[in-house]
What we know:
mainly alpha; transmembrane helix; Lmo0937-like; transmembrane; membrane; Lmo0937 family membrane protein
Amino acid sequence: MLFKIAAVLVVLWLLGLIVFKVSGALIHVLLVIAIIVGLVQLFRGRRGPP
């Protein structure tokens, strides 16, 4: 699920760089947030059900 969100954000980021110069900053912020969340999930590891 997280990787799907990251993939969508990367596509939006590239689209923002090419087409939408104004909304590019917002997309960059969302991409950085997605990377931070992904790294937190990676370092914590997934906990299975008890």
